[in-house]
Specification:
The chain has a single domain, classed as P-loop containing nucleotide triphosphate hydrolases (Rossmann fold, 3-Layer(aba) Sandwich). Helix 5 packs parallel to helix 6. It is α/β, with parallel strands linked by helices and about 270 residues long. It is globular. Strand 3 and strand 4 form a beta hairpin. It has helices at about 15-30, 45, 60-65, 90-100, 105-115, 130-140, 155-170, 190-205, 215-220, 230, 235-250, and strands at about 1-5, 35, 75, 80-85, 120-125, 145-150, 175-185. Helices cover about 40% and strands about 15% of the residues. The structure holds adenosine-5'-diphosphate and magnesium ion (MG). The site of magnesium ion has 4 residues, from helix 1. The site of adenosine-5'-diphosphate has 17 residues, from helix 1 and helix 9.
């Protein structure tokens, strides 16, 4: 199993949308996928229509009272499993911070799964802050996927994450960026294209070729508890996330090669 964090300290940039839809598209392709909802708001959990019961998040595993494996639930989607999120996770910022090794609790809790063969890919849907949950995700992950909204200041946010990656390498020396996903692209404005050009200028091929368009259907799908490939299977949102999935898999298969993740100096 390979573990990816889907992270950006900004809210509303498409982290959850990407986590849910990349997971669903990979499952559609026959991969065995585990989606881990690390956000107390549990948007990924509700976006796939999962009804969570109390105490079923990854929180007890972070504290050391349970194993992550015991928190895995099956979903309505073949090949897609879920560790749901719930409000308990809000307590992590205080409770986990109090514990020894507070930066590496999730890393320790997920280590054994990496060598088991139950899943091909796992995705951590991170909350929008640089708090204890996101840093734990970065410390645990093999690679990071960064969704970036096509708007002003996109690069500014990115430089912050790259800085955090540099710091987290003390506990997770092999962490790299798998890719940057440009989201909510609006073809009617020049701004979106300018932002994409600017980010590509700095991060070159690290930026996925696939750009996720702004689409009403993508915005609606979570309220129906469905990934876009079920809610609007032939629309532009589903087409984009399927294309992103193919690109993701091509990178995984090593069809494209990249230089090391650029450091802060590259920005
Ligand atoms: N490509 C898109 N087009 C339209 N709406 C989108 C798109 N991506 C995300 N949204 C909507 O924007 C909001 C924020 O997206 P979300 O994925 O929840 O961001 P994050 O997890 O980074 O906070 C949600 O209401 C979501 O449905
Ligand atoms: Mg989210």
């Amino acid at each position: 199993m390979k573990l990816f964090a889907i992270a950006n300290q900004k809210g509303g940039v498409g982290k959850t949308t990407t986590a849910v839809n990349l997971s669903a598209c990979l499952a559609e392709k026959g991969k065995r996928v585990l989606l881990i909802d690390l956000d107390p708001q549990a948007n990924a959990t509700s976006a796939i229509g999962f009804e969570n019961g109390p105490g079923n998040s990854i929180y007890p595993a972070l504290i050391g009272y349970a194993k992550v494996e015991d928190k895995i639930a099956v979903t309505r989607y073949k090949g897609l499993s879920l560790v749901p999120g719930d409000l308990d996770l809000a307590g992590a910022e205080v409770e986990v911070a109090r514990l020894d090794d507070h930066l590496t609790r999730l890393r320790a809790a997920t280590r054994s799964m990496l060598t088991q063969n139950a899943f091909d890919y796992a995705f951590l849907d991170c909350p929008p802050s640089l708090g204890i949950l996101m840093t734990n995700a970065l410390a645990a992950a093999d690679q990071l996927i960064i969704p970036l909204q096509c708007e002003y200041f996109a690069l500014e946010g990115l430089s912050k994450i790259v800085h955090v990656i540099d710091q987290i390498r003390a506990v997770n020396p092999t962490l790299t960026i798998a890719g940057i996903v440009m989201t909510m692209f609006d073809g009617r404005t020049n701004l979106s294209q300018q932002v994409v050009d600017e980010v590509r200028n700095h991060f070159k091929k690290l930026v996925y070729q696939t750009i996720i368009p702004r689409s009403v259907r993508l915005g609606e799908a979570p309220s129906f508890g469905k990934p876009i490939i079920e809610y609007d299977s032939n629309g532009i949102g589903a087409t984009a996330y399927r294309a992103l999935t193919v690109e993701f898999l091509n990178r995984e298969l090593g069809h494209e090669r990249f230089a090391d993740t650029p450091g802060v100096a590259a920005i």
